[in-house]
Design goal:
Heterotrimer of A, B and C subunits. The protein is of the alpha+beta class. It has 17 helices and 16 strands. It folds into 3 domains: 307 residues, no CATH class; 86 residues, no CATH class; 58 residues, Arc Repressor Mutant, subunit A, CATH 1.10.10. Helix 3 runs antiparallel to helix 4, helix 8 crosses helix 9 and helix 16 crosses helix 17.
Amino acid sequence: MAEKLMKFSEAVKRFDPVIGLETHVELCTNTKLFCPAHIEFGGEPNTQLTPVSLGLPGSLPVINETAVDFAIKLGLALHCEIAEWSQFARKNYFYPDMPRDYQISQYDKPTNGNGYLDVELDDGSIFRVPIERAHIEDDAGKNTHVGGADGRIEGADHSLVDYNRAGVPLIEIVTKPIEGAGERAAEIAGAYMRTLRDIVRALGISHARMEQGNMRADVNVSLRNKPTDPLGTRSETKNVNSFRGIEKTIVYEIRRQAALLSDGGEVLQETRHWDEASQTTAGGRLKTDADDYRYFPDPDLVMLHITKEHIERIAKDMPEMPRERRNRLQGEWKFSDLEMRDVINADALDLIEDTVKAGATASGAKKWWLGELSREANAKGVSLEELPITPADVAEVEKLIASGKLNDKLAKKTVSGVLAGEGTPDEVVKKHGYEVVQDTGALEAAVDKALADNPDIVEKLKSGNMKPMGAIIGAVMRATKGQADAKAVSGLVMKKLH
Protein backbone atom coordinates (compact mmCIF):
# COMPACT_ATOMS: atom_id res chain seq x y z
CA MET A 1 0.00 0.00 0.00
CA ALA A 2 1.34 3.42 -0.94
CA GLU A 3 2.44 5.54 1.99
CA LYS A 4 0.82 8.90 2.63
CA LEU A 5 2.96 11.87 1.62
CA MET A 6 2.76 15.59 2.38
CA LYS A 7 3.62 18.19 -0.25
CA PHE A 8 7.31 19.01 0.11
CA SER A 9 6.75 22.78 0.31
CA GLU A 10 4.26 22.28 3.15
CA ALA A 11 6.47 19.75 4.93
CA VAL A 12 9.47 22.08 5.17
CA LYS A 13 7.21 24.91 6.38
CA ARG A 14 5.75 22.83 9.18
CA PHE A 15 8.88 20.93 10.20
CA ASP A 16 12.64 21.48 10.46
CA PRO A 17 14.48 18.71 8.57
CA VAL A 18 17.83 17.45 9.83
CA ILE A 19 19.88 15.15 7.63
CA GLY A 20 23.05 13.12 7.99
CA LEU A 21 25.16 11.13 5.55
CA GLU A 22 27.35 8.10 6.13
CA THR A 23 29.40 7.74 2.97
CA HIS A 24 31.39 4.60 2.20
CA VAL A 25 34.32 5.25 -0.14
CA GLU A 26 36.09 2.19 -1.53
CA LEU A 27 39.83 2.79 -1.75
CA CYS A 28 41.72 1.95 -4.95
CA THR A 29 44.58 0.06 -3.31
CA ASN A 30 45.98 -2.94 -5.15
CA THR A 31 45.29 -5.30 -2.26
CA LYS A 32 42.78 -5.65 0.55
CA LEU A 33 42.92 -3.89 3.91
CA PHE A 34 44.27 -6.74 6.00
CA CYS A 35 45.64 -9.27 3.50
CA PRO A 36 47.47 -9.41 0.13
CA ALA A 37 44.44 -10.57 -1.90
CA HIS A 38 44.34 -8.70 -5.23
CA ILE A 39 41.41 -6.35 -5.90
CA GLU A 40 39.79 -6.22 -9.34
CA PHE A 41 36.27 -5.02 -10.11
CA GLY A 42 34.21 -7.51 -12.08
CA GLY A 43 36.47 -10.51 -11.45
CA GLU A 44 35.16 -14.06 -11.37
CA PRO A 45 33.25 -14.62 -8.10
CA ASN A 46 35.26 -15.92 -5.14
CA THR A 47 38.65 -15.73 -6.85
CA GLN A 48 40.19 -12.80 -4.95
CA LEU A 49 40.52 -14.50 -1.61
CA THR A 50 42.96 -15.40 1.14
CA PRO A 51 42.37 -17.14 4.49
CA VAL A 52 42.18 -13.68 6.10
CA SER A 53 39.44 -12.35 3.81
CA LEU A 54 37.51 -15.60 4.37
CA GLY A 55 37.91 -15.32 8.13
CA LEU A 56 39.42 -18.79 8.46
CA PRO A 57 40.60 -19.89 11.93
CA GLY A 58 44.20 -19.01 12.69
CA SER A 59 44.48 -16.30 10.00
CA LEU A 60 45.80 -12.95 11.22
CA PRO A 61 45.22 -9.47 9.72
CA VAL A 62 48.07 -7.13 8.77
CA ILE A 63 47.21 -3.47 8.03
CA ASN A 64 47.68 -2.09 4.50
CA GLU A 65 49.97 0.95 4.88
CA THR A 66 48.76 2.53 1.63
CA ALA A 67 45.18 2.48 2.88
CA VAL A 68 46.27 4.32 6.03
CA ASP A 69 48.07 6.96 3.95
CA PHE A 70 44.93 7.36 1.83
CA ALA A 71 42.92 7.92 5.00
CA ILE A 72 45.38 10.59 6.15
CA LYS A 73 45.08 12.36 2.78
CA LEU A 74 41.31 12.42 3.07
CA GLY A 75 41.53 13.61 6.66
CA LEU A 76 43.67 16.55 5.57
CA ALA A 77 41.28 17.40 2.73
CA LEU A 78 38.32 17.35 5.14
CA HIS A 79 40.10 19.55 7.70
CA CYS A 80 39.97 16.73 10.25
CA GLU A 81 41.96 16.26 13.41
CA ILE A 82 44.20 13.26 12.68
CA ALA A 83 44.73 11.12 15.75
CA GLU A 84 48.27 10.16 16.72
CA TRP A 85 46.85 6.92 18.10
CA SER A 86 43.81 5.18 16.61
CA GLN A 87 42.39 1.72 17.09
CA PHE A 88 40.56 -0.99 15.17
CA ALA A 89 37.54 -2.66 16.72
CA ARG A 90 35.36 -5.64 15.95
CA LYS A 91 31.82 -4.72 14.93
CA ASN A 92 29.79 -7.88 15.42
CA TYR A 93 26.84 -8.78 13.20
CA PHE A 94 25.77 -11.93 11.46
CA TYR A 95 25.23 -11.54 7.72
CA PRO A 96 26.04 -14.21 5.12
CA ASP A 97 28.32 -11.81 3.23
CA MET A 98 30.49 -11.23 6.34
CA PRO A 99 32.57 -14.42 6.59
CA ARG A 100 34.14 -13.57 9.99
CA ASP A 101 30.74 -12.64 11.47
CA TYR A 102 32.31 -9.33 12.44
CA GLN A 103 33.63 -6.31 10.55
CA ILE A 104 36.97 -4.72 11.41
CA SER A 105 36.23 -1.03 11.78
CA GLN A 106 37.11 1.88 14.05
CA TYR A 107 34.79 2.86 16.87
CA ASP A 108 35.75 5.22 19.69
CA LYS A 109 39.28 5.92 18.43
CA PRO A 110 39.01 6.74 14.67
CA THR A 111 41.92 8.00 12.59
CA ASN A 112 40.12 11.18 11.49
CA GLY A 113 37.61 13.23 13.46
CA ASN A 114 35.99 16.63 13.86
CA GLY A 115 36.34 18.07 10.37
CA TYR A 116 34.21 19.95 7.84
CA LEU A 117 33.59 20.32 4.13
CA ASP A 118 32.45 23.54 2.46
CA VAL A 119 30.19 22.87 -0.52
CA GLU A 120 29.10 25.29 -3.22
CA LEU A 121 25.39 25.33 -4.08
CA ASP A 122 23.75 26.15 -7.40
CA ASP A 123 23.40 29.85 -6.57
CA GLY A 124 27.09 30.12 -5.66
CA SER A 125 26.50 30.21 -1.90
CA ILE A 126 28.65 28.11 0.44
CA PHE A 127 27.25 25.68 3.03
CA ARG A 128 29.53 24.10 5.63
CA VAL A 129 28.86 20.42 6.35
CA PRO A 130 30.31 19.29 9.71
CA ILE A 131 32.21 15.98 9.69
CA GLU A 132 32.06 13.75 12.76
CA ARG A 133 34.67 11.21 11.64
CA ALA A 134 36.30 9.54 8.64
CA HIS A 135 37.32 6.10 9.81
CA ILE A 136 38.94 3.07 8.18
CA GLU A 137 37.16 -0.28 7.86
CA ASP A 138 36.90 -3.27 5.56
CA ASP A 139 33.98 -4.09 3.29
CA ALA A 140 31.64 -7.07 3.34
CA GLY A 141 31.08 -9.45 0.44
CA LYS A 142 28.15 -9.23 -1.95
CA ASN A 143 24.86 -11.13 -2.00
CA THR A 144 23.14 -11.83 -5.31
CA HIS A 145 19.49 -12.82 -4.97
CA VAL A 146 18.25 -15.17 -7.67
CA GLY A 147 14.66 -15.64 -8.78
CA GLY A 148 13.19 -12.37 -7.53
CA ALA A 149 12.40 -9.18 -9.41
CA ASP A 150 15.34 -6.88 -10.20
CA GLY A 151 17.72 -8.94 -8.06
CA ARG A 152 15.87 -8.07 -4.84
CA ILE A 153 15.50 -10.54 -1.99
CA GLU A 154 11.70 -10.40 -2.16
CA GLY A 155 10.52 -13.44 -4.08
CA ALA A 156 14.03 -14.84 -4.58
CA ASP A 157 14.53 -18.61 -4.72
CA HIS A 158 18.05 -18.51 -3.32
CA SER A 159 21.05 -16.23 -2.82
CA LEU A 160 24.66 -16.48 -3.97
CA VAL A 161 27.56 -14.96 -2.04
CA ASP A 162 30.68 -13.50 -3.65
CA TYR A 163 33.46 -12.81 -1.15
CA ASN A 164 35.72 -10.95 -3.61
CA ARG A 165 34.70 -7.63 -2.02
CA ALA A 166 35.15 -8.93 1.54
CA GLY A 167 38.13 -7.13 3.01
CA VAL A 168 38.33 -4.33 0.44
CA PRO A 169 39.43 -1.14 2.27
CA LEU A 170 36.85 1.55 2.89
CA ILE A 171 36.76 4.94 4.49
CA GLU A 172 33.42 5.80 6.03
CA ILE A 173 32.81 9.54 6.26
CA VAL A 174 30.12 10.33 8.83
CA THR A 175 28.67 13.81 9.04
CA LYS A 176 27.40 15.38 12.21
CA PRO A 177 23.68 16.23 12.06
CA ILE A 178 23.35 18.75 9.22
CA GLU A 179 21.10 21.46 10.62
CA GLY A 180 19.74 24.62 9.04
CA ALA A 181 19.33 23.07 5.59
CA GLY A 182 15.57 23.60 5.40
CA GLU A 183 14.06 23.29 1.94
CA ARG A 184 17.59 22.97 0.47
CA ALA A 185 18.38 19.75 2.34
CA ALA A 186 18.40 17.58 -0.78
CA GLU A 187 20.43 20.12 -2.77
CA ILE A 188 23.00 20.36 0.05
CA ALA A 189 23.29 16.57 0.25
CA GLY A 190 23.79 16.29 -3.51
CA ALA A 191 26.40 19.07 -3.54
CA TYR A 192 28.21 17.47 -0.58
CA MET A 193 28.34 14.06 -2.26
CA ARG A 194 29.56 15.50 -5.58
CA THR A 195 32.22 17.55 -3.79
CA LEU A 196 33.33 14.51 -1.81
CA ARG A 197 33.49 12.45 -5.00
CA ASP A 198 35.64 15.12 -6.67
CA ILE A 199 37.98 15.25 -3.67
CA VAL A 200 38.66 11.50 -3.44
CA ARG A 201 39.27 11.40 -7.18
CA ALA A 202 41.63 14.37 -7.00
CA LEU A 203 43.50 12.66 -4.16
CA GLY A 204 43.76 9.50 -6.25
CA ILE A 205 42.43 7.33 -3.43
CA SER A 206 39.23 6.04 -5.06
CA HIS A 207 37.63 5.70 -8.49
CA ALA A 208 34.40 6.84 -6.78
CA ARG A 209 32.17 5.28 -9.43
CA MET A 210 28.82 5.05 -7.73
CA GLU A 211 27.41 2.65 -10.31
CA GLN A 212 30.19 0.19 -9.39
CA GLY A 213 29.66 0.58 -5.65
CA ASN A 214 32.96 2.44 -5.14
CA MET A 215 30.97 5.12 -3.36
CA ARG A 216 27.60 4.79 -1.66
CA ALA A 217 25.77 6.52 1.14
CA ASP A 218 23.42 5.76 4.00
CA VAL A 219 20.98 8.68 4.19
CA ASN A 220 19.60 9.75 7.58
CA VAL A 221 16.55 12.01 7.80
CA SER A 222 14.62 13.27 10.82
CA LEU A 223 12.09 16.03 11.43
CA ARG A 224 11.40 18.26 14.42
CA ASN A 225 8.85 21.01 14.96
CA LYS A 226 11.36 23.83 15.26
CA PRO A 227 15.17 24.22 15.24
CA THR A 228 15.38 24.61 19.02
CA ASP A 229 13.71 21.22 19.65
CA PRO A 230 15.71 18.00 20.23
CA LEU A 231 16.48 15.92 17.15
CA GLY A 232 13.60 13.77 15.94
CA THR A 233 13.67 10.02 15.36
CA ARG A 234 15.64 9.28 12.20
CA SER A 235 15.27 6.82 9.39
CA GLU A 236 18.37 5.48 7.66
CA THR A 237 18.08 4.62 3.99
CA LYS A 238 20.91 2.22 3.20
CA ASN A 239 23.38 2.02 0.33
CA VAL A 240 22.01 4.67 -2.04
CA ASN A 241 24.41 4.71 -4.98
CA SER A 242 23.46 7.70 -7.11
CA PHE A 243 23.41 11.44 -6.52
CA ARG A 244 19.82 11.77 -7.71
CA GLY A 245 18.83 8.79 -5.57
CA ILE A 246 20.27 10.50 -2.49
CA GLU A 247 18.46 13.75 -3.27
CA LYS A 248 15.16 11.98 -3.98
CA THR A 249 15.49 9.84 -0.85
CA ILE A 250 15.71 12.98 1.28
CA VAL A 251 12.71 14.61 -0.39
CA TYR A 252 10.64 11.43 -0.08
CA GLU A 253 11.54 10.84 3.57
CA ILE A 254 10.74 14.46 4.49
CA ARG A 255 7.33 14.10 2.82
CA ARG A 256 6.67 10.68 4.37
CA GLN A 257 7.70 11.60 7.89
CA ALA A 258 5.84 14.92 7.76
CA ALA A 259 2.60 13.17 6.79
CA LEU A 260 3.11 10.55 9.49
CA LEU A 261 3.80 13.08 12.26
CA SER A 262 0.92 15.33 11.19
CA ASP A 263 -1.47 12.40 11.57
CA GLY A 264 -0.20 11.73 15.09
CA GLY A 265 1.93 8.78 14.03
CA GLU A 266 5.41 7.85 15.17
CA VAL A 267 8.54 7.65 13.02
CA LEU A 268 10.34 4.35 13.55
CA GLN A 269 14.11 4.28 13.94
CA GLU A 270 14.66 1.83 11.12
CA THR A 271 16.71 1.08 8.06
CA ARG A 272 14.99 1.66 4.73
CA HIS A 273 15.83 1.00 1.09
CA TRP A 274 15.49 3.30 -1.92
CA ASP A 275 13.59 1.77 -4.83
CA GLU A 276 14.59 3.52 -8.06
CA ALA A 277 11.71 1.99 -10.02
CA SER A 278 8.95 3.26 -7.73
CA GLN A 279 10.88 6.35 -6.51
CA THR A 280 10.04 5.43 -2.92
CA THR A 281 11.73 4.13 0.20
CA ALA A 282 10.61 0.91 1.84
CA GLY A 283 11.01 -0.18 5.47
CA GLY A 284 13.67 -2.74 6.35
CA ARG A 285 14.59 -3.63 9.90
CA LEU A 286 14.50 -1.67 13.14
CA LYS A 287 17.77 0.25 13.45
CA THR A 288 20.20 -1.04 16.04
CA ASP A 289 22.31 1.24 18.21
CA ALA A 290 26.08 1.00 18.60
CA ASP A 291 25.74 -1.11 21.77
CA ASP A 292 24.03 -3.85 19.78
CA TYR A 293 27.16 -4.34 17.69
CA ARG A 294 29.16 -5.23 20.83
CA TYR A 295 32.24 -3.26 19.76
CA PHE A 296 35.53 -4.18 21.39
CA PRO A 297 39.19 -3.57 20.39
CA ASP A 298 40.42 -6.14 17.87
CA PRO A 299 42.98 -8.24 19.78
CA ASP A 300 44.78 -9.19 16.56
CA LEU A 301 45.70 -5.60 15.68
CA VAL A 302 47.86 -3.20 17.66
CA MET A 303 46.94 0.47 17.91
CA LEU A 304 47.77 2.54 14.84
CA HIS A 305 50.47 5.15 15.50
CA ILE A 306 50.66 8.09 13.07
CA THR A 307 53.46 10.57 13.74
CA LYS A 308 53.29 14.29 13.03
CA GLU A 309 56.28 13.91 10.71
CA HIS A 310 54.42 11.33 8.63
CA ILE A 311 51.38 13.60 8.35
CA GLU A 312 53.61 16.51 7.29
CA ARG A 313 55.24 14.40 4.56
CA ILE A 314 51.83 13.49 3.15
CA ALA A 315 50.60 17.08 3.43
CA LYS A 316 53.50 18.30 1.26
CA ASP A 317 52.39 16.04 -1.61
CA MET A 318 48.70 16.93 -1.50
CA PRO A 319 47.32 17.70 -5.00
CA GLU A 320 45.25 20.68 -6.06
CA MET A 321 41.79 20.51 -4.52
CA PRO A 322 38.66 20.56 -6.71
CA ARG A 323 37.50 24.12 -5.96
CA GLU A 324 40.94 25.59 -6.67
CA ARG A 325 41.15 23.48 -9.81
CA ARG A 326 37.74 24.67 -11.03
CA ASN A 327 38.69 28.30 -10.47
CA ARG A 328 41.96 27.80 -12.34
CA LEU A 329 40.31 26.04 -15.29
CA GLN A 330 37.54 28.60 -15.47
CA GLY A 331 40.17 31.31 -15.85
CA GLU A 332 42.16 29.36 -18.43
CA TRP A 333 39.07 28.49 -20.46
CA LYS A 334 37.50 31.95 -20.08
CA PHE A 335 34.13 30.45 -19.12
CA SER A 336 31.51 32.58 -17.40
CA ASP A 337 30.18 31.53 -13.97
CA LEU A 338 27.04 30.21 -15.66
CA GLU A 339 29.04 28.22 -18.23
CA MET A 340 31.20 26.69 -15.51
CA ARG A 341 28.16 25.80 -13.43
CA ASP A 342 26.66 24.05 -16.47
CA VAL A 343 29.88 22.06 -16.83
CA ILE A 344 29.86 21.06 -13.16
CA ASN A 345 26.17 20.15 -13.17
CA ALA A 346 26.72 17.98 -16.24
CA ASP A 347 29.62 16.24 -14.48
CA ALA A 348 31.77 17.07 -17.51
CA LEU A 349 34.76 18.88 -15.99
CA ASP A 350 37.19 15.96 -16.24
CA LEU A 351 36.00 15.07 -19.74
CA ILE A 352 36.40 18.62 -21.01
CA GLU A 353 39.83 18.99 -19.41
CA ASP A 354 41.02 15.72 -20.97
CA THR A 355 39.59 16.79 -24.34
CA VAL A 356 41.46 20.09 -24.15
CA LYS A 357 44.66 18.22 -23.21
CA ALA A 358 44.13 16.09 -26.32
CA GLY A 359 44.20 19.19 -28.53
CA ALA A 360 40.69 20.66 -28.65
CA THR A 361 39.67 24.16 -27.70
CA ALA A 362 37.76 24.56 -24.44
CA SER A 363 34.73 25.98 -26.24
CA GLY A 364 34.77 23.14 -28.75
CA ALA A 365 35.05 20.50 -26.04
CA LYS A 366 32.19 22.08 -24.08
CA LYS A 367 30.03 22.24 -27.20
CA TRP A 368 30.29 18.48 -27.74
CA TRP A 369 30.06 17.22 -24.16
CA LEU A 370 27.22 19.54 -23.13
CA GLY A 371 25.43 19.31 -26.49
CA GLU A 372 25.29 16.27 -28.74
CA LEU A 373 26.89 13.87 -26.25
CA SER A 374 24.80 15.06 -23.32
CA ARG A 375 21.62 14.43 -25.32
CA GLU A 376 22.90 10.96 -26.23
CA ALA A 377 23.68 10.15 -22.59
CA ASN A 378 20.26 11.35 -21.43
CA ALA A 379 18.54 9.29 -24.12
CA LYS A 380 20.39 6.15 -23.03
CA GLY A 381 20.06 6.88 -19.32
CA VAL A 382 23.82 6.75 -18.70
CA SER A 383 26.48 9.19 -17.51
CA LEU A 384 28.68 11.05 -20.00
CA GLU A 385 31.76 9.02 -19.04
CA GLU A 386 29.87 5.79 -19.77
CA LEU A 387 29.39 6.73 -23.43
CA PRO A 388 31.61 4.72 -25.82
CA ILE A 389 33.58 7.79 -26.90
CA THR A 390 36.77 9.20 -25.39
CA PRO A 391 38.05 12.75 -24.93
CA ALA A 392 40.72 11.89 -27.51
CA ASP A 393 37.95 10.97 -30.00
CA VAL A 394 36.18 14.29 -29.42
CA ALA A 395 39.47 16.19 -29.84
CA GLU A 396 40.10 14.33 -33.12
CA VAL A 397 36.68 15.37 -34.43
CA GLU A 398 37.47 18.98 -33.51
CA LYS A 399 40.80 18.75 -35.38
CA LEU A 400 39.03 17.40 -38.47
CA ILE A 401 36.63 20.36 -38.36
CA ALA A 402 39.48 22.85 -37.89
CA SER A 403 41.36 21.37 -40.84
CA GLY A 404 38.32 21.76 -43.09
CA LYS A 405 37.88 18.00 -43.60
CA LEU A 406 34.53 17.95 -41.75
CA ASN A 407 31.64 20.37 -41.48
CA ASP A 408 29.23 20.39 -38.52
CA LYS A 409 26.79 17.98 -40.16
CA LEU A 410 29.48 15.48 -41.11
CA ALA A 411 31.05 15.84 -37.67
CA LYS A 412 27.77 14.83 -36.02
CA LYS A 413 27.56 11.80 -38.32
CA THR A 414 31.14 10.92 -37.42
CA VAL A 415 30.43 11.12 -33.70
CA SER A 416 27.34 8.93 -34.21
CA GLY A 417 29.57 6.37 -35.94
CA VAL A 418 32.02 6.37 -33.03
CA LEU A 419 29.15 5.90 -30.57
CA ALA A 420 27.89 3.01 -32.70
CA GLY A 421 31.23 1.26 -32.32
CA GLU A 422 32.51 1.81 -35.85
CA GLY A 423 35.98 2.86 -34.71
CA THR A 424 37.88 6.10 -34.24
CA PRO A 425 36.67 9.33 -35.89
CA ASP A 426 39.29 8.95 -38.63
CA GLU A 427 38.17 5.37 -39.30
CA VAL A 428 34.50 6.39 -39.42
CA VAL A 429 35.27 9.21 -41.86
CA LYS A 430 37.18 6.88 -44.19
CA LYS A 431 34.56 4.14 -43.95
CA HIS A 432 31.68 6.42 -44.99
CA GLY A 433 33.57 8.95 -47.10
CA TYR A 434 32.40 11.77 -44.88
CA GLU A 435 35.10 14.29 -45.83
CA VAL A 436 34.08 17.71 -47.11
CA VAL A 437 34.17 18.01 -50.90
CA GLN A 438 37.68 19.19 -51.82
CA ASP A 439 37.12 19.07 -55.59
CA THR A 440 36.65 22.76 -56.44
CA GLY A 441 35.34 21.84 -59.88
CA ALA A 442 32.57 19.68 -58.42
CA LEU A 443 31.72 22.34 -55.85
CA GLU A 444 31.64 25.08 -58.48
CA ALA A 445 29.37 22.98 -60.68
CA ALA A 446 26.95 22.48 -57.79
CA VAL A 447 26.93 26.24 -57.08
CA ASP A 448 26.34 27.08 -60.75
CA LYS A 449 23.39 24.72 -60.89
CA ALA A 450 21.89 26.12 -57.67
CA LEU A 451 22.17 29.68 -59.01
CA ALA A 452 20.69 28.69 -62.37
CA ASP A 453 17.76 26.94 -60.70
CA ASN A 454 16.97 29.94 -58.49
CA PRO A 455 17.08 33.16 -60.58
CA ASP A 456 14.75 35.01 -58.19
CA ILE A 457 17.13 34.37 -55.31
CA VAL A 458 20.07 35.48 -57.44
CA GLU A 459 18.40 38.84 -58.04
CA LYS A 460 17.81 39.33 -54.29
CA LEU A 461 21.43 38.49 -53.53
CA LYS A 462 22.63 40.93 -56.20
CA SER A 463 20.51 43.66 -54.63
CA GLY A 464 22.26 43.11 -51.28
CA ASN A 465 19.59 40.98 -49.58
CA MET A 466 21.62 38.14 -48.06
CA LYS A 467 18.74 36.38 -46.30
CA PRO A 468 18.08 33.90 -49.16
CA MET A 469 21.74 32.75 -49.14
CA GLY A 470 20.69 29.79 -46.99
CA ALA A 471 18.52 28.45 -49.80
CA ILE A 472 21.47 28.36 -52.19
CA ILE A 473 23.72 26.75 -49.57
CA GLY A 474 20.99 24.18 -48.84
CA ALA A 475 20.69 23.31 -52.55
CA VAL A 476 24.45 22.80 -52.79
CA MET A 477 24.42 20.69 -49.62
CA ARG A 478 21.75 18.43 -51.10
CA ALA A 479 23.69 18.11 -54.32
CA THR A 480 26.86 17.15 -52.44
CA LYS A 481 25.06 14.93 -49.88
CA GLY A 482 25.91 17.33 -47.09
CA GLN A 483 29.65 17.23 -47.83
CA ALA A 484 30.18 20.84 -48.85
CA ASP A 485 31.63 23.51 -46.60
CA ALA A 486 29.02 26.20 -46.01
CA LYS A 487 31.59 29.00 -45.77
CA ALA A 488 33.26 27.88 -48.99
CA VAL A 489 29.87 27.75 -50.75
CA SER A 490 28.95 31.24 -49.52
CA GLY A 491 32.30 32.64 -50.65
CA LEU A 492 32.00 31.04 -54.09
CA VAL A 493 28.46 32.40 -54.55
CA MET A 494 29.56 35.93 -53.69
CA LYS A 495 32.53 35.62 -56.04
CA LYS A 496 30.28 34.57 -58.95
CA LEU A 497 27.73 37.30 -58.27
CA HIS A 498 30.28 40.09 -58.10
